[in-house]
């Protein structure tokens, strides 16, 4: 994953929100959101999923995926 801190900060800027607001919306802790903003840490898989669930429009951006290069997706039933 490319520089998560840069991406996280651009998402905050684009959504016009603070790390505190991000934590309220996504369910990650305020400390984690602040740490991501300053580059102290990167998210665990669980927190990455929370961020993506809260802001699905950024999924490809966060994961460095190009939609044109993705094969057709398969959705499995549980």
TrEMBL record:
UniProt xrefs under Pfam families: HTH_3
SMART domains hit by this protein: HTH_XRE (SM00530)
Source species, domain of life: Bacteria
Record domain HTH cro/C1-type: where: 13-62
PROSITE patterns referenced in this protein's UniProt entry, alphabetically: HTH_CROC1
A GO MF label: DNA binding
Residues annotated as transmembrane: none
UniProt protein name: HTH cro/C1-type domain-containing protein
Lineage: Bacteria, Pseudomonadati, Pseudomonadota, Gammaproteobacteria, sulfur-oxidizing symbionts
